[in-house]
Amino acid sequence: MKVFVIDVAKCSGCYNCQIACKDEHCGNDWPPYAKPQPETGHFWMRVKQEEHGQVPKVRVEYTPWPCMHCEDPKCGRVAPDAVDVRDDGLVIIDPERAVGRRELVDACPYGAVFYNEELDVPQKCTGCAHLVDEGKLPHCVDLCATGALRFGDEEEFADELLHAETYLLEEGCRPRVFYLNRPYLFLAGDVWDPACDEIVEGARVTLAMLDGTVRKTVTDDFGDFYFRKLDEGVYDVAVEADGYRPVERRGIELKKSLNLGDFALVRA
Q: InterPro entries from the xrefs (predicted)?
């Protein structure tokens, strides 16, 4: 069985994969897998951009987002006569049997199915099945300049898949596009002494959740601290440093990454 492995940490947002998909499918007919993709409106390979934090602590992450080639695709549940799951795991919407089947667009929880109004057919990423049949890589993978996109037999990636994640597990689709270093939220801030207008290096920072989970870190040589790979939730942050009174902020509601700004310490 084939899988896509996408390392978000390696994606630079160059959009080569998105352009490669257009290059391979716009104006090209690849029977029996796909009719030509429209030049606009369709993103069979999309790059999702997400901004985390606020100035000056900002990080931009890019997530390549194709069809997830699910083992139990929802599009296939809606129209089993028009959707095929190949032996190698690639999911194909048959361009002849799916004519007029608009319901396939709404069926996909990943937003990866698009409707071609001119041809009256739903379309999506085929995994470049026509190239895979020739022993070649999908075009998006072949043109990925950073190695963020890879494709091959599941066994080749066995060790990495132990640490990989998929999206929307609750849908029960069992996607075969796996992500490494997928984006999460962060909390950040900086610690300083306003009396002498200097940062405080090595301050001890504790992050606590309502369930009792605790994480700790120290400020770096710029007085900054980060807690990464966080889920949405409510957090408390406490800061301590030798010779200073401790400070804390409680009930921080994290729905998106936050720069908490300055923590000013007063000497004891």
A: 4Fe4S_Fe-S-bd, ET_IronSulfur_Cluster-Binding, Ig-like_fold
Task: Give the separation between CA 169 and CA 180, rounded to whole angstroms.
Answer: 15
**Domain co-membership, 120 together with 11:** yes
Q: Select from 251, 200, 248, 194 the least CA-distant residue to 222.
A: 200
Structure tokens belonging to residue 230:
């966080």
Structural domain of 132: 2-180
Around 129, how many Cα atoms within 13 Å sit in the side-chain half-sphere? 23
| Last residue in a domain, options 161, 180, 199 | 180
**What is the bridge-based pairing of β-strands 258-264 and 177-180?**
unpaired
Which is it for the CA torsion 22, 2, 68, 133, positive or negative?
positive
* CB atoms closer than 10 angstroms to residue 63: 18
Output the pLDDT for position 210: 87
Q: 200: part of which helix (H) or strand (E)?
A: none
pLDDT of residue 183: 81
* pTM exceeds cut of 0.90: no
Task: Give the span between the Cα atoms of 25 and 172, in whole angstroms.
Answer: 29
Triad 114, 139, 74: Cα angle to 5°: 35
68 and 84 within one domain:
yes
What is the predicted pLDDT for the residue at 182?
86
As given in the structure block, the two tokens for residue 124 are 């999506």
Cis geometry, peptide bond prior to residue 95 (ω within 30 degrees of 0)? no
Taking only the tens place, the pLDDT of each residue in 152-172 is 999 999 999 999 999 999 999
